[in-house]
Design goal:
Length: 142
């Protein structure tokens, strides 16, 4: 492999590997109510292409649901790699180290919450927002 192709391949592989680490174990998710209220802890268990979320509000309502993973501004790249006497076509997904989890989770008392989380592959940190169907807004950190 040429040095340039090897570097591109390894950087793309690193991004895939880092996002796959998100799925290793449930991680703390913190909702911070806009206005009054104390931060609320929840859990996010991320896998490849999705994240399961569980949050208990002080009112006693328990939310859970699945968010999907989107890769904004991603581009498919290809190249030919030659090793010895053999050549191979390599495909990879290039992105700007960000991804986004999006979806709606449901509470056991009928409330729904729309969540958008923007994540950085380098730091494995996410920030975003949650808005319930009765217009209660939260800032979210992971």
């Amino acid at each position: 492999m040429t040095a340039q192709i090897k570097t591109i391949f390894l950087s793309k592989l690193a991004i895939v590997f880092l996002f796959s680490l998100l799925g290793c174990a449930p991680t703390k998710l913190t909702l911070i109510p806009r206005g009054q209220g104390i931060p609320i802890d929840g859990n996010i268990d991320a896998g490849v292409g999705y994240a399961d979320v569980k949050i208990g509000l002080p009112s006693g309502e328990m939310f859970q649901g699945r968010l999907i993973w989107l890769t904004p501004q991603s581009v498919m790249n290809s190249g030919i790699v030659t090793t010895g006497s053999q050549s191979f076509v390599m495909l990879g997904l290039s992105q700007n180290n960000t991804a986004m989890y999006m979806g709606t989770i449901a509470g056991n008392k009928g409330t729904k919450m729309r969540i958008q989380l923007y994540c950085n592959a380098s730091t494995l940190r996410c920030i975003g927002t949650g808005i319930t169907n009765d217009s209660v807004e939260y800032d979210i950190q992971r």
